[in-house]
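Progress report, Aim 2. The chain analyzed during this reporting quarter is listed below.
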Amino acid sequence: MSENKSEKLRYTVLLVPNNAGRVKQFRISFDLIIFISLLAAVVVLGAALFVVNTAQTLNQKDEEISKLHDVLLFREQEEIVREARIEELENTLREAKNTIETARKKSDNAEKKSVQAAIPSVMPVKKATSVPEYQDEEGKQYIQFLVEEGTRIYATADGTVKSLTKDEKYGYFLRIDHGNGYESEYILKAKPRFSVDDKVSRGNTLFVVGLDVTTLSYRIYYDDKIINPMDVIKIDG
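Predicted structure tokens for the chain:
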């Protein structure tokens, strides 16, 4: 019965040293060789698969890193654009504030000048002899100017002609409302150049003194009460 059985192949492996010493040998079966070969093949294949998988993973990681780098670069560019925009907006806001501040100052100055221009703080004549704080028969203060032919009588502030009447004894009474509680009145025997409701500005010529005119009486009212003109007039104005 043993004759019918095929014998298993066995291989003898000799280990021969270089120094010609004792030779060692051992036997190994064919099945073990196949097993070892298969195991080696599996290991090699696994290593190859691991290398391929690792390479693919590294490629994916490289792609992800490249995408992240692109995203980061895009974000940096966005940040640069945003910072430039913010700086531009800050400059625009600063310019707007400066413009508003300049306009406000101009408006304040214009308003201040307008207020000042509506206060009768200058003399109605440039060359004259005056008697300040002169009392008339009713105890009302006014300034009387001695004027000569050709003298111009000027409006002492911006305003509107409130009234214009004529008196046989004193001549014309021209009264200007300056719109801030102040009113000025000019009394002299000369024909006025403005009528009721006319707008006048400081420095406008109201009268030109004629040959038979010698005096100008000038009054200032505040809240409909006559006040001392010298309390309002700036001598250096």
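DSSP finds one helix and twelve strands in the chain. The first strand starts at residue 10 and ends at 15. These observations will guide the mutagenesis work planned for the next reporting period.
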